[in-house]
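Whiteboard transcription, Tuesday session. T.W. wrote the structure tokens on the left side:
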């Protein structure tokens, strides 16, 4: 186990990410006895300490944490503030003074990526990075070239083991449960290959649009925002070989093999969409071609997965909010029963939103004289079955950075390889196709998605636990 950090320095302590996610996550760590270190906020605003504490207090209140909460009072008491411009050397001198006696700080860069290099260089110049950990937020580049430049910049001052590239999606309980389900259950492994799996589909749909963030979304689009990072990570978890152990290096090695096995994609593999009304959003170009929807088909040329399509659908302003991965098995080799219709294939579902669910669909006999089959779902709702929700994503990731656990963070070569997969689509994208808000995307998505996708996906509902 790595050494435990003895201070957390939060760049961007006055920003939206800190307000919405980081202060509640720090409070949760304090409740569980996993914080207990100084939290030093640094920001450009000319605030004093009490104003930062008031900001943190408001954040906790917005998260539903009462003012008299003991852990909240403990967290507020350990917060400090350093004011300064990130380009001013004096700011880092003041930070060095605040860190006097600290042996292993964690620097969390909740700031625009354009400032990463400037801040890391200044930290190194003031001898603050020798034993430090540095957490950087996405976006980790906007294409392969910029991702390589970012990695090169970080490597100039830091060792790879010091860098924690955060992807909050990896902190979700059900995302982590994919590996436990695969490698903790002997019955799945013999069936987890091209002989028994017909197709794999990943869904990440949202019923809301860009919600006033049009200017930001114009710089990313769906392919960059969620497919290149979140959803390719899911592909890796579903397709990877068993690692030697759950050590971060071994897990990353197996993910890297998956990305390198993906057959080169072309514009024929992708359907891009844009919802009607997007161009009227504030900050959006009236002639924008930015994608708010992606449907993508991948082929993994490995011994295990050759010939099995992996498909992705993701987008905004669709008919529902749903994140899940569905593994569909091959149907039985011949019909034996009296069914007039089609016997549904077995499906194994991992749902992350709107609830944490594992569900197996299988065939049983309907009551009666005839041998007629019916599909039933054997479901386990995580919180209902285990009695409590898992830790929130940022709580887990912050806690892991403090103790030096890399498993839920992206390694530099993985980030670059994921960009390599989608780079041909960025270089030669098909035009965006319009779709109606509240639909499931443009009609053209059928060119790359499974023909029976509607049957694969179910409406989220409360089901009886297995």
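and on the right, the sequence the group agreed on:
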């Amino acid at each position: 186990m790595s050494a435990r950090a003895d201070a957390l320095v939060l760049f961007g302590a006055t920003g939206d990410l800190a307000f919405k996610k980081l202060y509640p996550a720090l409070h949760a760590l304090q409740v569980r006895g996993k914080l207990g270190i100084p939290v030093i906020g640094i920001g450009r605003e000319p605030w004093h300490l009490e104003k930062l504490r008031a900001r943190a207090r408001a954040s906790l209140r917005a998260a539903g944490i009462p003012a008299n909460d003991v852990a909240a009072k403990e967290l507020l008491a350990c917060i400090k503030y350093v004011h300064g411009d990130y380009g001013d050397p004096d700011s880092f001198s003041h930070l060095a003074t605040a860190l006097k006696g600290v042996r292993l700080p964690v620097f969390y860069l909740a700031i625009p990526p354009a400032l990463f290099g400037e801040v890391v260089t200044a930290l190194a110049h003031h001898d603050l990075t020798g034993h430090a950990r540095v957490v950087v937020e996405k976006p980790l580049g906007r294409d392969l070239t910029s991702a390589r430049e970012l990695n090169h910049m970080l490597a100039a001052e830091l060792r790879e083991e010091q860098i924690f590239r955060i992807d909050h999606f990896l902190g979700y309980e059900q995302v982590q449960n994919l590996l436990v389900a695969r490698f903790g259950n002997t019955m799945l492994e013999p069936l987890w290959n091209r002989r028994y799996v017909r197709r794999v589909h990943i869904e990440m749909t949202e019923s809301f649009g860009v919600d006033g963030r049009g200017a930001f979304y114009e710089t990313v689009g769906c392919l960059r925002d969620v497919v290149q990072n979140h959803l390719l990570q899911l592909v890796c978890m579903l397709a990877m070989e068993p690692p030697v152990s759950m050590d971060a290096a071994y897990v990353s090695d197996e993910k890297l093999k998956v990305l390198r096995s993906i057959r080169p994609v072309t514009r024929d593999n992708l359907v891009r969409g844009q919802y009607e009304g997007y161009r009227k959003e504030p900050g959006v170009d009236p002639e924008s071609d930015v994608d708010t929807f992606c449907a993508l088909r991948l082929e993994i040329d490995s011994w295990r997965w050759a010939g099995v399509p992996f498909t992705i659908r993701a987008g905004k302003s669709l008919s529902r909010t749903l994140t899940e991965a569905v593994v569909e098995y091959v149907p039985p080799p011949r019909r034996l029963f009296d069914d007039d219709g089609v016997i549904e294939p077995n499906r194994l579902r991992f749902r992350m939103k709107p609830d944490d669910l594992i569900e197996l669909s299988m065939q049983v006999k309907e009551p009666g004289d005839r041998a007629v089959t019916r599909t039933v779902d054997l479901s386990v709702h995580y919180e209902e079955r285990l009695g409590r929700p898992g830790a929130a994503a940022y709580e887990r990731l912050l806690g892991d950075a403090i103790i030096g656990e890399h498993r839920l963070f992206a390694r530099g070569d993985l980030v670059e390889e994921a960009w390599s997969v989608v780079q041909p689509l960025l270089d030669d994208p098909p035009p965006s196709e319009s779709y109606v808000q509240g639909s499931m995307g443009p009609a053209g998505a059928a060119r790359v998605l499974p023909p029976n996708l509607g049957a694969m996906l179910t409406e989220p509902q409360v089901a009886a636990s297995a």
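Someone added at the bottom: The CA atoms of residues 295 and 409 lie 26 Å apart.
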